[in-house]
Amino acid sequence: MKTRTNFGLLPLCALSVLYSCSAFYLPGLAPVSFCKEVKEEGECQTQIQLFVNRLDSVESVLPYEYDVFDFCQDAKESRPSENLGQVLFGERIESSPYKENNAIKWASRWDYILVSMPHTNIQWFSIMNSLVIVLFLSGMVAMIMLRTLHKDIARYNQVDQEDAQEESGWKQVHGDVFRPPRKGMLLSVFLGQGTQIFIMTFITLFLACLGFLSPANRGALMTCAVVLWVLLGTPAGYVSARLYKTFGGEKWKTNVLLTALLCPGIIFADFFLMNLILWVEGSSAAIPFGTLVAILALWFGISVPLTFLGAYFGFKKPAIEQPVRTNQIPRQIPEQSFFTKPIPGIVMGGILPFGCIFIQLFFILNSIWSHQMYYMFGFLFLVFIILLITCSEATVLLCYFHLCAEDYHWWWRSFLTSGFTAVYLFIYAIHYFFSKLQIVGAASTILYFGYTTIMVLIFFLFTGTIGFFSSFWFVNKIYSVVKVD
């Protein structure tokens, strides 16, 4: 078993034995003064409290409380308050019966953690790898936009009426390109939830990048993400309702209910099953019943009403106006080549976005399953921005190729093209499980893949939403500048 120790305070200066010292670690923690002699109450502290959080093992993902064994119990046990993120990660903070090792200098207390951290040069290699992919895609998109697409528009706008019947390419499907997609209800629900996840992720990573969600303030990252998700129900309801109205849908009550309950319900059901396994195994990661009730209260008491509020404003707005009219009779789609068929295009679309993140993904999985601390949020935020650009450019590129092949079914395809990156994420998680981890036991295996499923679903909605809105903007743009009789 391996012990993870949580120090309440990590000073930047060595603790003097004769003089008081004010110390703090990173933004998010208030400075505390220490002194050797006892002075007035509240002026300074004479002892540095040592706290522990849980016992971990490389062979299991089941954490246990630090005093689960008799020899680890503290006679004067004290439990400080824990935030929501710590409870969700199964950290039960308590005092330790053991004292600090005075032979170790205070400035070197985190050396053993920093040694296990990913080196900066590997992170820079990850960034350079992602930038090369972005530059390649940007060059392809620029070539299409500035040369091919510009020539297409000029040719379409100058063609004579007699030659109109001989045209080919993306202009020919102008009467069908904005035909509402099948399963438009489900697509609008996914896009509403994806918008909510996107805004939540952006704000959380931005705050972490600024240092407000320091690793020293344990659980702050998860707490911030959960609170933001709860408060961002309004954008989810608005986007879902507005798009559903644009698709011509009329079952607005079903749309709102699905937006508020479908994806969160799937995640909560998975999370609840994983929590049952933790409870049966007696793990400290099992969420108390009161916390589950509090999460449900946040969901139904705040998130759901905010989703209804956003949907109300979304349905009050007029449907998004399309630049061209839709024909009554659908156009027949010509025979497609292998690369322009739906499944090969979707499978290829997720390769490049995944190539931008797979190195960073290794460090993130290490922090979750191999008990390593992740603190390079600046690199992570940069990779996040690169992922946005890559998903957008790859989806727009494939959307253009499909429209040139006169296949106008782009709604779902644009969502699934970038969303397929989540499938590669799942495949990589399987590879990571068998090649990097030493986990044994059915319970730990089920927990690993259960939590991985939650990650994959969230990532699928996130990347799919990016691809859809990029293609939506692209298609509206090109058909608004071409002359249509």
From TrEMBL:
<feature type="transmembrane region" description="Helical">
    <location>
        <begin position="375"/>
        <end position="403"/>
    </location>
</feature>
<keyword id="KW-1133">Transmembrane helix</keyword>
<feature type="transmembrane region" description="Helical">
    <location>
        <begin position="256"/>
        <end position="280"/>
    </location>
</feature>
<dbReference type="GO" id="GO:0072657">
    <property type="term" value="P:protein localization to membrane"/>
</dbReference>
<dbReference type="Pfam" id="PF02990">
    <property type="entry name" value="EMP70"/>
</dbReference>
<feature type="transmembrane region" description="Helical">
    <location>
        <begin position="219"/>
        <end position="244"/>
    </location>
</feature>
<dbReference type="InterPro" id="IPR004240">
    <property type="entry name" value="EMP70"/>
</dbReference>
<protein>
    <recommendedName>
        <fullName>Transmembrane 9 superfamily member</fullName>
    </recommendedName>
</protein>
<comment type="similarity">
    <text>Belongs to the nonaspanin (TM9SF) (TC 9.A.2) family.</text>
</comment>
<keyword id="KW-0732">Signal</keyword>
<feature type="transmembrane region" description="Helical">
    <location>
        <begin position="292"/>
        <end position="315"/>
    </location>
</feature>
<feature type="transmembrane region" description="Helical">
    <location>
        <begin position="415"/>
        <end position="434"/>
    </location>
</feature>
<dbReference type="GO" id="GO:0016020">
    <property type="term" value="C:membrane"/>
</dbReference>
<keyword id="KW-0472">Membrane</keyword>
<keyword id="KW-0812">Transmembrane</keyword>
<feature type="transmembrane region" description="Helical">
    <location>
        <begin position="124"/>
        <end position="146"/>
    </location>
</feature>
<feature type="transmembrane region" description="Helical">
    <location>
        <begin position="446"/>
        <end position="475"/>
    </location>
</feature>
<feature type="transmembrane region" description="Helical">
    <location>
        <begin position="189"/>
        <end position="213"/>
    </location>
</feature>
<feature type="signal peptide">
    <location>
        <begin position="1"/>
        <end position="23"/>
    </location>
</feature>
<dbReference type="InterPro" id="IPR036259">
    <property type="entry name" value="MFS_trans_sf"/>
</dbReference>
<feature type="transmembrane region" description="Helical">
    <location>
        <begin position="346"/>
        <end position="369"/>
    </location>
</feature>
